[in-house]
Specification:
With 187 residues, the protein is an alpha+beta fold. The protein contains four helices and six strands. The protein has helices at residues 2-10, 37-40, 104-127, 150-165; strands at residues 27-32, 56-61, 63-66, 78-81, 145-146, 178-179. The longest helix has 24 residues, at 104-127. Pathway: Amino-acid biosynthesis.
Length: 187
């Protein structure tokens, strides 16, 4: 059901890029957990779900603020917008499900909505407080701790090797959770 939900979220959308050279000007942003693999194949439920995190976390954005990695010079901020033609909140009566081409009114309405929404982002960037505060931990180094310990992890690797030799599997993701305090700000 997770992959079907993602497909349903994206169904019917088509990006018309025009001359936009920002690689990803809008769209879905998020993540799929490793557990989504259980929708694709039958796997044992050996792992304990102690976090209760969703298998899919995604949102669709019609605006992005994008920039390239900083260099020695100025870093231009690019703000993009991808308004939907035939958006129910617009004053256009264009039906995106129809085979007809959008009317000039529908295109103009989409352009104005996109422009207005882009200006909102630009104003927020211009007027925002530039300070983000101190990171939660002020240390240049972090000590990572394993959730299972060295011996338990080594035992997991030994068991996987046995399964490989027996022909039960040829590839396995043996993992452990490493935890450390964040020495960087999350923003």
């Amino acid at each position: 059901p997770i992959l079907a939900a993602l497909e349903g979220l994206l169904a019917g959308d088509r990006l018309v890029r025009g001359n936009c050279d920002v690689p990803v000007p809008c769209g879905a942003v998020g993540w799929l957990s490793y557990d989504v693999a259980r929708e694709l194949e039958t796997l044992p439920d050996a792992a304990v779900d102690d976090r209760g995190l969703p298998r899919l976390e995604v949102a669709v954005y019609d605006r992005f603020a994008a920039w390239e990695e900083p260099t020695d010079g100025d870093v231009p901020l690019r703000i993009t917008a991808c308004p939907r033609i035939g958006d129910p909140d617009s004053d256009s009566d264009f039906d995106p499900e129809s085979a007809e081409e959008p009317t000039d009114v529908a295109l103009e309405s989409a352009y104005e909505r996109g422009r207005d929404r882009t200006l909102v982002v630009a104003e927020a960037v211009r007027d925002a407080d530039p300070g983000i505060g101190d990171p939660p931990v002020s240390s240049p180094e972090a000590t990572f701790e394993s959730d299972c310990g060295r011996e338990t992890f080594a035992d997991r690797v030994r068991r996987v090797k046995e399964h490989v030799r027996a022909g039960d599997t040829f590839q396995t993701n043996v993992s452990q959770r490493l935890v450390a305090p964040a020495a960087v700000h999350p923003v």
